[in-house]
């Protein structure tokens, strides 16, 4: 890995990010996890990757919306958790992935949303991912951005996906995830509809029915 110019790191095709880069990025994220100082985190990312400050204009937001249409992702993950009320945790997440050569785009995301973090994508050679996994931040920052700058122009498929994701966020806001009937018959079907890939070996559940049965068994075992 080399510093191709004065402003960014550069990885040639197939080249892996160096261990030193990964360790420093992890250190920056670990520090942020402890002090929760976002301006300090942004400055650390900018300094590390040699990025210039971003001026956020309406034109920049429109460009970024088009970028998200192709590269952004709205997902729900299902995780088995014994301490969860229904033995299952559904986590919403907004993410944007880029090869390290395009880290400037991830920094734009940091600058626009004023939250989130940039991490290395495990298992990749040189891919970074910008992630917002805090539900309140998704509700207050990601959803409005999509509504104002992306959904008026996005594809029907992306619009339907956004609407389903937004519905889940609304259900969480109204505490619907604490109601068994809503969890089984609204949240889990929405989770299933938003799964991008099915039939993978590492799936938590192979089907909607399996996830629902897992919840029912957990509730029965608690009685």
Q: Please, could you describe this protein's structure?
A:
With 223 residues, the protein is of the alpha+beta class. The protein has one domain: Endonuclease I-creI (Roll). 52% of the residues lie in helices and 14% in strands. The chain has eight helices and four strands, in the order H-H-H-E-E-H-E-E-H-H-H-H. A four-stranded antiparallel sheet has the order 1-2-4-3. The longest helix has 18 residues, at 156-173. The N and C termini lie far apart (57 Å). The mean pLDDT is 92.
Helix and strand composition category: alpha+beta
**Number of helical stretches of at least 4 residues:** 8
Helix content: 40-55%
CATH class: Alpha Beta
The helix-strand sequence is HHHEEHEEHHHH
The number of domains = 1
CATH architecture: Roll
- How far apart the termini lie comes to 57 Å
- What CATH calls the topology is Endonuclease I-creI
What characteristic shape results from the CA principal axes?
A: globular
State which percent range the strand residues make up. 5-15%
Overall pLDDT, averaged?
Answer: 92
**Order of strands across the main sheet:** 1-2-4-3
CATH homologous superfamily assignment: Homing endonucleases
Largest sheet: 4 strands, antiparallel
Count every beta strand, where a strand is a DSSP E run of 2 or more residues: 4
Radius of gyration, Cα only, in angstroms? Answer: 19 Å
Low-confidence stretches are none
